[in-house]
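pls design
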């Protein structure tokens, strides 16, 4: 991006120009970067420390990923026989995830505990129900002594094949981990229930089998950080956390080892960055709009 300061320096700035300048300054300041690497290699990238780490860790379910999901069968009906998802993993990195290495990363990359109250960093870890206990126990070894459990309520269940058990799961779990001081909490002094709605959004294309909804991520980012602060997702998948951070004017960094996810996520992230930049600058998303309504050059028409 050209240096706006040098373009505007010495000029008599009108109010409008000043507003554009302020917006551009903000866009330049914000960083959103996804790395195609293991988070364990974070030192190479020299990224800043985070006010919030959001991570949706692999559930380590291996080949049982679709075990209670109707997609195990063709058209969701067991009369039709098994589909190509039967006995498959969500992704081939959904096993052997090392929670201790993950917690080491988080305790290193979370900002230091501040002196003041109400400013402490936190992490939110989406996980499978039983992983919560392991996380809570192991986190203490890394100084993350405190937790709050979160439950997200879906209005659907992916486990309908468990219907013979009468109770099917419609929840997602996460835990908020923090050191000693309570995390920064932005909600105008109002409390928040630990059971929240799982707001699905159809706006984002599906890149990853366990993609988290942007709306849910935005809510968490707004609660635990201020504009301009840093959010890190060490297991980024579709890059949903980075996109949510972009929407909320926070900086974000992420890691994803699978090439395919990384490629799709990076492309989406770059297009959303451009879209936001254009909306802030011109009031509309020029590039995206020209893809929907291309301007054809028909040349000279001779009757
Ligand atoms: C549960 S998925 C995350 C999905 C993501 N929350 C989303 O909304 O799209 C976990 C991701 O972590 C990646 N992963 C596993 N181990 C990793 C590691 N050591 N470093 C970076 N990424 C890793 C996997 O390839 C997988 O895509």
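designed seq:
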């Amino acid at each position: 991006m050209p240096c706006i300061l040098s373009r505007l320096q010495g000029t008599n700035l009108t109010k409008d120009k000043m507003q554009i300048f302020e917006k551009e300054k903000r866009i330049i300041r914000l960083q959103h970067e996804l790395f195609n690497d293991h988070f364990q290699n974070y030192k190479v990238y020299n990224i800043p420390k985070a006010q919030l780490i959001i991570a949706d860790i692999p559930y380590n379910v291996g080949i049982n990923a679709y075990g209670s999901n109707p997609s195990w069968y063709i058209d969701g009906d067991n009369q039709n026989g098994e589909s190509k998802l039967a006995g498959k993993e969500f992704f081939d990195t959904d096993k052997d995830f090392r929670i201790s290495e993950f917690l080491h990363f988080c305790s290193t990359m979370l900002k230091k505990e501040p002196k003041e109250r109400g400013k402490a960093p936190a992490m939110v870890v989406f996980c499978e129900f039983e992983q919560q206990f392991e996380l809570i126990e192991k986190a203490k070894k890394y100084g993350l002594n405190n937790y709050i459990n979160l439950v997200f309520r879906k209005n659907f269940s992916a486990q309908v094949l468990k219907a013979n058990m009468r109770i099917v799961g419609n929840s997602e779990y996460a835990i908020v981990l923090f050191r000693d001081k309570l995390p920064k909490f932005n909600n105008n002094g109002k409390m928040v229930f630990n059971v929240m709605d799982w707001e699905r959004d159809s706006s984002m294309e599906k890149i990853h089998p366990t993609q988290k909804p942007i709306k849910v991520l935005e809510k968490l980012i707004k609660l635990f950080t201020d504009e301009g602060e840093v959010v890190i997702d060490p297991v980024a998948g579709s890059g949903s956390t980075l996109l949510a951070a972009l929407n909320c004017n926070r900086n974000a960094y992420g890691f994803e080892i699978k090439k395919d996810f990384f490629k799709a996520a990076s492309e989406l992230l770059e297009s959303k960055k451009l879209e936001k930049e254009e909306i802030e600058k011109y009031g509309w998303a020029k590039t995206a709009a020209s893809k929907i309504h291309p301007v054809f050059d028909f040349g000279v028409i001779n009757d």
